[in-house]
Amino acid sequence: METVLLFLGLMAVFFGAEYLMRKLLKVEKVVLSETPGGKISNWGREIILGAALIAIFLFLDVFDDAILWFWIFYFLALGIIEAFLEWRYFPDSKSYLVSLLQIPFVIGFLLITIYLLS
Predict the structure, then answer these.
(1) Distance between CA atoms of 62 and 64, rounded to whole angstroms?
(2) Tens of pLDDT along 12-68?
(3) Cα–Cα distances in Å, from 10 out to 39, 68, 81, 88, 109?
(4) What are phi and psi of 58, to 5 degrees?
(5) Which residues form the signal peptide (predicted)?
(6) Burial of residue 88 (number of CB atoms within 10 Å: 0-12, 13-18, 19+)
(7) DSSP annotation of 34
(8) How far is residue 61's CA from residue 57's CA, in Å, rounded to a whole number?
């Protein structure tokens, strides 16, 4: 039960921080899937997931913290590709800044969750 409450609390903080960042930067949420970048985003996510899954199976026995590094790499790569595509397909919007600012939040929450659960 504590794990569920921790997860829900961190998600509430994350979405609250995203809302606050959008208000402070005066950025509206953009929909990437309505542009040609939507297909590129989907392909990028699939390629990143495939590469990350292959890497985790290769390094699972070598590193004790392979799962942690898997999630860090996965969220970092997803955040970077999302920010790049928002910058590319919405040049007048600053939504890519919010995507870039979310990366440290996601990785920080991941590290907090792993630390508190271990």
Answers:
(1) 7
(2) 888 898 899 889 989 888 888 888 888 998 999 999 989 888 887 887 777 777 777
(3) 30, 17, 23, 30, 7
(4) -75, -35
(5) none
(6) middle
(7) G
(8) 8
Q: Which residue has the tokens 């495939």?
A: 50
Alpha carbon distances (Å) from 48 to 20, 62, 71, 72, 110: 29, 21, 11, 12, 18
- Side-chain half-sphere exposure of 100, counting CA atoms within 13 A: 10
pLDDT class for 113, splitting at 50, 70, 90? Answer: confident
Query: Six-digit token pair at 34?
Result: 């309505």
Query: Taking the CA of residue 9 as centre, how many other CA atoms within 13 Å lie in the half-sphere pointing to its CB?
Result: 9
Residue linked to tokens 């939507």: 38
Task: Taking residues 84-96, report their average pLDDT.
Answer: 90
Q: DSSP string spanning 43-104?
A: HHHHHHHHHHHHHHHHHTTT-TTHHHHHHHHHHHHHHHHHHHHHHHH-TT--HHHHHHHHHH
